[in-house]
Structures are given as C-alpha cells and as structure tokens.
Amino acid sequence: MIIVTTDTITGRKVVHTLGWAKGNTIRARHLGKDIVAVLRGMVGGEVVEYTKMMAEAREEAVARLIEDAEAQGANAVIGLRFSTSLVMQNASEILAYGTAVVVE
Fold it and tell me: Less crowded by CB within 10 Å, the N or C end of the chain?
C-alpha cells in the first residue's frame, strides 16, 4: 500500500478513484502517565509518555485506514491527513483520512 500526503504519486498514474478512506482510534489518558507528565512538566522537557501514546494512536489510525482502503480495492491512498478532536475530558480521537485509489 502506497500512502502519500500529496495528491499525486510521482511515476504512478491514478486509474481509478474509489473514494474516502479513513481510520480512527480514541485514546484516554492513564492516571499513572498523568502523574509522571505533571512531574515532568514541572522540570520542563518533552512529555515522553504522551508523545509515545500519540504516536501509537497515529499508527493505529493509519493501520485502520489501510484496512478500509484495501476493503475498497485500493492499492494506494493519496492526500493523507490527520485530525484530532476531544471526545471527552480525558479522551481524544485521532482520525487518519485520504482518498483511496488504484494506481498503475
């Protein structure tokens, strides 16, 4: 599966546009990580616990995007984008979306 943020893939021709492909996940904060994050925030620096959690959430959303695109018969996704939204006080959604296409 080819996934790009651009609307074209260099050296490839889009022969069929299948439609919108998406994948999402909702992640909640963990009390233990929150405590470590607060302490780290007091001394400064990267909050590694949240960085790791968000990276894992993006990877899960992309994996689900790929599943959705493959179910449509795509071999590529163009125009990949990410969106985040607050679902509730301690939970956020990560949405990965793009256009499922067939390229040659």
Answer: C
- Burial classification of residue 36, based on how many CB atoms lie within 10 Å of its CB (0-12 exposed, 13-18 middle, 19 or more buried): middle
| Residue 43 counted as domain residue | no
Could you report the per-residue pLDDT of 10-22, keeping only the tens digit for each? 999 999 999 999 9
Q: How much is the pTM? A: 0.84
> Which CB contacts under 8 angstroms, 24+ apart, belong to 80-87?
80/3, 80/4, 80/5, 81/5, 82/58, 87/26
40 assigned to some structural domain = no
Assess contact for 94 and 25: CB atoms under 8 A. Answer: yes
| 21-53 per-position pLDDT tens digit | 999 999 886 656 666 666 666 766 777 777 888
CATH code: domain of residue 12: 3.30.110.70
